[in-house]
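Handout, section B. The chain below has 464 residues.
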Amino acid sequence: MSKRKVYLILGAVLFLSFFACAISFPNFFNKGIDLINNKTHLNLPHIWQIPFRLGLDLQGGVHLIYEADLSKIDKSDYASAMAGLRDIIERRVNYLGVQEPVVQVQKTGGHYRLIVDLAGVKDPAQAIKMIGQTPYLEFREQRTKEETEKILKKQEEIKGKKPEEIKKIKDWYLALEDPYFKHTSLTGQYLEKASLGFDPNTGKPLILLQYNKEGAKILKELSKKNIGKILAIYIDGRPISTPVIKEEIPNGKAQITGNFTIEEAKKLVRNLNSGALPVPIKLVSQQAVGPSLGSISLSKSLKAGIFGFLAIILFMIIFYRLSGLLASFSLTIYVVLVLAIFKIMGVTLTLAGIGGFILSIGMAVDANVLIFARMREEMKKRENFAIALEEGFRRTWPSIRDGNATTLLIALILFWFGTSFIKGFALTLSIGILVSIFSAVFITQNFLRFFRGTRLEKIRWLWG
């Protein structure tokens, strides 16, 4: 590889590192930007600040365990009922504004449980109250244009007014209504089952609805007077679908068509069944994690990571001299790149996740050790630094590739089958492994190529 190409690669690496450093530590850069702006009046924009997402064990929150009562549901529907219930709970906690909530189904023996982790939640009582409600499914009919305009006008009328002023306005309560859809007597209690089907002509997925006798009567009347209009489907007061009634539905059998993907159709089926079937959940365990405990854990983890990182750099410089110093630069770039990726991807960092990241640093160092050990052997055989360098990387690549590939495979298995904390460990480890390969094989190699043809390449003790 020509020297010019090496310079271009190193320039690109340094630019990428600068960008990643700005994403990872924006406050430091923004202080510099403020200083420049004050001196020159250039009005340079600030670096975009993306906060790290911290998990339950680092920023505090609530860990809840609910047990589901599936006594009124057929065993064949257990999995779909729990999946639908999980979707509803996720929607509810997202509505509370909880960042990265973890909601998962756990089967223990013959019991089904719902595990809910709410990181950073400020009002555990409100969250518990909201989660504990049974999902409520209802169907709403479209309002007339006059009704919609009347409600929107009333909402505009009360805007910006205090509660005591609002109550003096005539018919003020209309402003609290949904301006587009109104309640009907058709609710989830009349829906016997929702299932996935396919259009025989187009092959597109659709949702099949079966109502009981009483529900069929209500649906017949509703469909008769609302042909060409929307009959919206709501769960917990929020719309999940807005199908249009094309004709009268006399027998309680209806279908929802649209441009669904199979996954979207399955999710809608789960939500409909979850809203229709009574799946009560009982809180069996509640554990609060204080933010002070989380901050202590985070502080200890960061200290451990920093001391470990410095120890690795010291080891590399002592045993591999200039090669070790270049590897330390490469390792620093690796750390900054991974932190930037965590921010951009929105990875939720837990103690286990930080452990996975620190372990990946060890994997990156291991690759460098293999490369430098092989280079040392090649330099004993050959006087030429360039040949020893290329041979060292070529001969160690299969070992680096296979070792990282097997670790990555295990990490993927852990992510697929593991619980929330295990998934956090597996995700950060996987990202770290992929970046470490790039760091060791690409960045370190080009740092070393920079010294080809220089006087330093002839000083053999510098290279271990």
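Note. The mean pLDDT is 82. Compare this with the example in section A.
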